[in-house]
């Protein structure tokens, strides 16, 4: 059976031009990736196109670097800088890769956040990106086997998680686990201008006595900045 066909394709990631081609769908991308030693068995055409672009891309990219856990800044300012950095890193990640971090991982909250720092938090084929530009710099993280998580240093410390938002006004739900309640209350006043941890962009989630700070990031309406 002849599988060749003529298709009209718009591939801005690869060429930026609208053109006709006669091709076996995906053959060109498959061959290019296999030359790099990247297995492509079972990948859809759009995944191969995106993977090829990311593996070969070394374009301009803005990384967000913050003085993480800096002792020279007041804690409220540090927390604000870190939340802002994560939000901006998400935007830069999506701008470069046309996907949000959770679309490149196994979906775990820890890996969704750590994907802003390392490809080791991503699932195949994205874990093979040789020219990955981390949009978030200088953030401490732990590795235990295949489990990777970013860390904060407030109180006794805890993981930084990220999931798609359950609030339609925002794209991301960022969680700092195991935070001192006093710090969460302070940040609630700074961010929401009120002390009510059950509503607003900054909320609290209490689990078995552990206080988690929840921050809604990346507005669906506008580019969110403070």
Topology:
Elements: E1 5-10, E2 18-23, H1 27-35, H2 45-56, E3 64-65, H3 75-97, H4 109-114, E4 136-137, E5 141-144, E6 147-152, E7 158-164, E8 170-176, H5 181-192, E9 202-207, E10 210-219
List keywords for this structure.
two-stranded antiparallel sheet, single chain, 10 strands, alpha+beta, globular, disordered N terminus, 6-stranded antiparallel β-sheet, 25% strand, 226 residues, TcpA-like pilin, 5 helices
Description:
The longest helix is centred in the middle third of the chain and has 23 residues, at 75-97. Helices cover 27% and strands 25% of the residues. The strands form three sheets. It has a six-stranded antiparallel beta sheet. The chain is globular, with a radius of gyration of 20 Å. It has helices spanning 27-35, 45-56, 75-97, 109-114, 181-192; strands at 5-10, 18-23, 64-65, 136-137, 141-144, 147-152, 158-164, 170-176, 202-207, 210-219. The termini are far apart. The protein is an alpha+beta fold.
Low-confidence stretches: 1-26, 38-42, 55-62
CATH architecture of the largest domain, please? 2-Layer Sandwich
Q: Please provide the ordered H/E string of secondary-structure elements.
A: EEHHEHHEEEEEHEE
- Tell me the span between the first and last alpha carbons: 59 Å
How many beta-strand elements? 10
Structural class: alpha+beta
Arithmetic mean pLDDT: 76
Tell me the β content.
15-25%
Strand order of the largest sheet: 5-6-7-8-10-9
Determine the CATH topology of the largest domain: TcpA-like pilin
Number of helices: 5
Q: How many domain units?
A: 2
Radius of gyration: 20 Å
Name of the CATH class of the largest domain: Alpha Beta
Helix content: 25-40%
């Amino acid at each position: 059976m002849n599988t060749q066909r003529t298709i009209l394709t718009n591939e801005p990631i690869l060429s930026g031009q609208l053109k006709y081609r006669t091709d076996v769908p995906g053959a060109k991308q498959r061959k290019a990736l296999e030359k790099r030693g990247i297995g492509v068995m079972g990948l859809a055409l759009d995944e191969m196109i995106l993977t090829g672009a990311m593996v070969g891309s070394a374009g301009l990219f803005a990384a967000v670097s913050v003085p993480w856990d800096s002792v020279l800044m007041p804690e409220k300012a540090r927390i604000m800088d870190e939340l802002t950095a994560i939000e901006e890193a998400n935007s830069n990640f999506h701008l470069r890769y046309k996907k949000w971090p959770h679309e490149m991982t196994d979906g775990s909250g820890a890996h969704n956040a750590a994907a802003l720092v390392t490809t080791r938090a991503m699932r195949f084929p994205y874990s093979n990106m040789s020219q990955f530009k981390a949009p978030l710099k200088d953030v401490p993280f732990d590795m235990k086997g295949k489990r990777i998580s970013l860390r904060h240093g407030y109180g006794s410390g805890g993981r930084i998680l990220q999931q798609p938002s359950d609030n339609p006004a925002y794209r991301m739900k960022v969680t700092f686990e195991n935070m001192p309640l006093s710090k969460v209350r302070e940040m609630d006043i700074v961010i929401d201008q009120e002390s009510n941890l059950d509503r607003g962009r900054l909320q609290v989630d209490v689990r078995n006595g552990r206080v988690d700070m929840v921050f809604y990031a990346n507005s669906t309406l506008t580019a969110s900045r403070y």
